[in-house]
Design brief:
By secondary structure, the protein is of the alpha+beta class. The protein has 19 helices and 26 strands. The longest helix is centred in the first third of the chain and has 20 residues, at 6-25.
Length: 611
Amino acid sequence: MKEMSPLQEIRHSAAHIMATAVLRLYPDAKLDIGPPTDTGFYYDFDLDHKFTAEDLQRIESEMKNVIKERQPFERIVVTRDEAEKFFLEIKQDYKIGRLGDIPDGEPITYYRNGEFVDLCAGTHVEDTGKVRAFKLLNVAGAYHRGSEKNKQLQRIYGTAFPDKKELRTYLHQLEEAKKRDHRKIGKDQRFFHIDDDVGQGLVLWTPSGSIVREQLQIFIAGELRKQGYKQVFTPHIGKLGLFRTSGHFPYYSDSQYPPIVHRAELSHLAEEGCSCAELSNKIDTGEIDGYLLKPMNCPMHIKLFASQPHSYRDLPVRLAEFGTVYRWEQSGELTGMTRVRGFTQDDAHLFCTDDQVEEEIKGCLYLVKVILSTLGMSDYRVRVGLRDTDSDKYAGHPENWDKAESILLEVAESMGVPYTKEIGEAAFYGPKIDFVVRDVIGREWQLGTVQVDYNLPERFGLEYVGTDNKPHRPVLIHRAPFGSMERFCGVLIEHFAGNFPTWLAPEQARLLPITDNQNEFAQSILDQLFAKGIRGTIDSQSDKLGAKIRRAETDKVPYMLVIGAKEAEQGTVSVRSRVNKENEGSLSVEEFIARIEQEVVNRTLPISAPS
């Protein structure tokens, strides 16, 4: 029986209650799966009728009836033949397919509540009356088993909590999240664009979004120089053999773009009568070479390290790159900037001795902490991803895994922040530390990561000359504090609700001449701002001042500089800030420049982040 937390049991039970209600209202519905999730639950249905918002209200009402009936959840163990016969009789074909997922020898169980029976491993609350606070949220399409080759089902999402207070808090968080949705703000503020003609999941950075990204890169580049990193650049594609050696191809082919084989080679094979299946096999076995859009930067950094001899005196070698990589994500899983198919990692790989590993990890974690604190994201926890010793998906020797995991756990313990151990969450080549950040409205995002790897150096035969003048194997540390620039910027848009701190804001100041008579003076001020590297514009439209102020506030510009006849005569500006939303008085141009320069140098955060 699968163990669940009390909250998971409530949500899992709510999913069954929802399915019970759906079948009462729509007896022809075919059911697939209905698990709990980190934020609630869902159930997938195959039904000709398309669910509407009004339907969700009807289903909620019927769920309340099921809850009032206090139906006990009863666990029933059956044989495989009994289960197959039962689901054939009630015409629930998807359940018969799911039977095949249960390995031979494992118990096959139903859970019954009232008239509803589901193929389920459990667990559940005592009875339906224990589910006291729930809400159905929305309907979305979901392919059966996550494959676009299969039929698209209707997935109803919901959430449930132990009490109504927690539910209200969560629903308020969802409403606030809608206001902060980076897809809406990103469009309104012209931060990024995704175009079908370019491809879904491939982000086009606009000038405004590019400024935010560039400033983040400048910020981290300065920190990297302090720690002795060297910048490198590598291609977007590499030979398949490189990724065979690393283990990325073909073992993780489902999350990669197809291999690239030259047209002439394909034509030659077609003339020989080679089928698609035979071609695929030739590529997988290496009989035909080709290229791959790189899913990771590490194999190329490894090749840079291996391109010249090293002694222990050279180590650690720290190679950093803003490298773009490509992963194939299902179209239904793509989400704005936070789930994409092409993304740029603030990637680095550190090659060091065994004795240097712990200090290098601490340096990586310090870098992540500097970044998060600078951006006002100091509320985070650490997740240590360890291997599952019962799984065969992990490469390398157990003793190296033991050593790497021990070091990571010691470092996590020393950080003084909450951490958890997550069995089975390690990368195939080594354990890792992930930073899980809580944003201003309480949502969690997995951002920075640090990984210890004894395996790829062995797969590539890396060496350095030790103090004994003999060859030794270096240890490889992978680290990416931002994770990916796309995801990180998407999270930042929502964290700040588009109100970026002055140092990050695409437009730092907007000049608002009251009449056309002040346009010339406004231009002279803008020239001074540009000379100091301050980003600004002039609103020279023939509107009243109130309209210009509202436009600047809508565009979330940190500072508005009002210029009337008095200011033009005295050589001053009347300052309004985004935070205070009122006139803060007159400053000379030099005083304003000094103020904004101080904010940029200190990377000052907004006093508040208005929605």
